[in-house]
Amino acid sequence: MSRLPYSERIQSLHSHIPDSNWRLISNPTDIYYYTGLDCTESPEREAWLFVNNTQTLLCHTPFLVPSANSYAVLASLRVHEVAKKLISLCDEKTHLTVALDTDNITVAEQEAFATLFTVTQLNRKFLWEQRQLKSKLEIQHLTSAAQITARVMEKTIKALRVGITEQDLLRSVLQFFLEEKATAAFPPVIAFGDHTALPHHRPSTTVLEKNMPVLLDIGAKYEMYCGDMTRTVWFGDTVDPEFVKIESIVKDAYSQAEQQAVAGSAISAVDRAARDLISAAGYGPYYIHTTGHGLGLEIHEPPSLYHTESGKLETNSTITIEPGIYVPGKFGYRYENTLLITTKQPKILTKTE
Fold first, then answer.
1. Do the Cβ atoms of 332 and 215 come closer than 8 Å?
2. Considering only CA atoms, which of 327, 263, 267 is closest in space to residue 291?
3. Residue 75 carries which DSSP code?
């Protein structure tokens, strides 16, 4: 069975560190990306990864600390234990400089490290650039996650019936994922009626009735990688004419954005393609989020597909395209797929084969 290239990733990271100072990688997903150690589901800190331009130190907890201590004290004790290991490894007489990932470390941990080292801020730019470009095996896992998502979407739409609640359908979705040997990559959005106008609605006891819109935003997590897909359907025979109109606008906006989503295209151009079409149709104020985002080990990763973003799309990166229109108090409509970026038209991953 193929394995992800952890050692190659570490070597590449070493080559992009310009000095011998240490970098502390504290995001559990980053640690998995570089080492294969999965501590992403733990509510507590289980590992630290220190790297410089030649060395790697993985500190895997738990350490021997009193369980009754508060988290702040627990974090402080762990930091001191890790510091001892690092100092022992380096055998340095001079004070060490360590760059901390302040987006993924607590204030207590940061303060504890500051008493032991000279601390600076970690630049995550290369980490994100490295994670954005997917390997062959990563693409296989992402494709599997997306295909599972598409199959579960089909099952979920078929499960719609009068009297079912949003929470009932949520339980069905989670069961469908388990049957596919997957889990949910994020809390599913299951919305009936005017709840569809809330992009991140959480399922409630609202009951499905005839002639209601239904918005389903779901994603499978398979072999640590995420899929993401949204479909909006009308449940019933008497369709609101504005729903039909908005459906057409959103799908046209999606198509325009998809045509822009090729390697080398400006990220901002993908968003503009969708946003300009929706604005021209008179629904600009009701398009209230970005046109999409990167995804991989995490459901939201760079790039963010928005008209103010710089940069270009890269070959073998994965993104979502998900334009939407949300009319408060009435309904919303979103259409989303997960796509693999190539030098030609993107490959839609969220489809069954």
1. yes
2. 267
3. H
List the chain residues with pLDDT less than 50. 1, 62-74
Q: Please report the sign of the dihedral spanned by the C-alpha atoms of residue 261, residue 266, residue 271, residue 273.
A: negative
pLDDT (0 to 100) of residue 20: 83
Pick from 55, 53, 47: nearest CA to 25: 47
The amino acid present at 254, given as its one-letter code, is Y
What are the DSSP calls for 264-333, one per residue? T-BHHHHHHHHHHHHHHTT-GGG--S-SEEE-SSSSSEEEEE-TT--SB--TT-EEEE--EEEETTTEEE
pLDDT, one tens digit per residue, over 146-184 is 999 999 999 999 999 999 999 999 999 999 999 999 999
Q: Give me the residue label for tokens 């449940």.
A: 235
Q: Which has the closest alpha carbon to 315: 261, 259, 234, 240? A: 261
Beta carbons within 8 Å of 131's beta carbon, 6+ residues apart:
30, 33, 296, 297, 301
Q: Count other C-beta atoms under 10 Å from residue 12's C-beta.
A: 13
Residue 37 exposed, middle or buried by CB count within 10 Å (0-12, 13-18, 19+):
middle
Cis, bond preceding 199 (omega within 30 deg of 0): no
Q: Which of 238, 262, 23, 232 is nearest to 121 (CA)?
A: 23
Counts for the chain of helices (H) and strands (E), in that order: 9, 18
Q: For 252, what's the count of Cα atoms within 13 Å in the CB-facing half-sphere? A: 13
Both structure tokens of 348: 């839609």
Neighbours of 138 (CB within 10 A): 21
Angle at 112 between CA 106 and CA 115, to 5 degrees: 145
Contact 82/59 with Cβ under 8 angstroms? yes
- Supply 138's token pair: 């990563």
